[in-house]
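Ticket 4471: requesting a sanity check on a complex prediction with fe (iii) ion. Repro inputs:
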Amino acid sequence: MSGFDHVWLEANLATMEGEGLGVIEDGALAVKEGRIAWVGPRAALPAQDAPVTRCGGAWILPGLIDCHTHLVFGGNRAAEFEQRLAGATYEQIARAGGGIFSSVRATRAASEEELLAAATPRLQGLMAEGVTTVEIKSGYGLDLDSELKMLRVARRLGAEHPVEVVTSLLAAHAVPPDFPGGAEAYTDLVAGEILPLAARAGLADAVDAFCERIAFSPAQTERVFAAARAAGLPVKLHADQLSDLGGAALAARHGALSADHLEYASPAGLRAMAEAGTVAVLLPGATYFLREAKHPDIAAMRAAGVRMALSTDMNPGSSPARSLLLMLNLGCTLFRLTVEEALRGVTCHAAAALGLADRGVLRAGLRADFALYGIGRPAELCYWLGGHPCLGRVVGGR
Ligand code: DI6
Ligand code: FE
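Returned structure tokens:
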């Protein structure tokens, strides 16, 4: 008799293992001590006497992973949305001291409790869709105390909810407008002080930066990455979102886990990413919300063999997207991803974008993180615009 803790039966499984979606119809999945202990066709399930959940033909997928969010922030930017509707551009608003800086002011002014209260429903909305792992970035503090405050809030969100939170320090998100010495001096502060202290406090799992004309140059980004390496932290990059600064190749050169956005990335940059194993994180919510006409070069990504992940980029300025399922639809509709690409983008490839080898696939030995959906076929997850087909989630076997 196999000593499982719990078994799910009468489910169709999209394991994401091997070719296609790794579908097992009429499958079974068994869990022991927080890990998947067995997965396969029900007919092959070993004799066992664990408690059973009958799924009535529901589909089970690996728990969804939102691998790029800025979901901790003060205030919101609905007023700027109105300005943009009246004709202002995102870059104009940013250069006039709005944009990221209005969120910085609101985030600095907010207490840890206030940030936590504002972020909680955003996180819960993702969880209700079947998300079991969420990456959360800092980047609206832009000073030591406020960046650490954001990361502490992210850690508390993970501790207080049945979801795994992974943090990225994004102190190099924007140069504070009033900063003496400008971008160079602020880069010194990030690389010399904020990053080492965040690392020492155990608050950052990775380091991110925004390499862009309105943010940090490639040389400044490299200094931040050098500090990350010294602190033993992996890196990722907001790369080539608004212009081609060679961010994709820079990320690849530094062995980044991911390079994200990539609207303007060159085919050569994408090839460098494929060689380095750097995942391309696609953020169609930002493309859509900014009405960006330039789309990431999916054909070049396919040709290069870059793994593609898909994420909300949930943030108050460029992608107030609170639904990862909606991003599946946008990824397919705007970028012409296949259903398989989109679903891998929020499971196994999203796990790779976070450097997590223990999830994203339904496989014995991995974390028992999965979600159940009341759908007839996996394509439904990409097809509906809105709606909540998620019937339940299991995180770490619970
Ligand atoms: N790129 C983005 O799309 C977000 N940050 C970044 O580096 C936008 C952040 C914001 O507008 O608040
Ligand atoms: Fe972002």
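Notes from triage: The chain has a mean pLDDT of 97. Leaving this open until the requester confirms.
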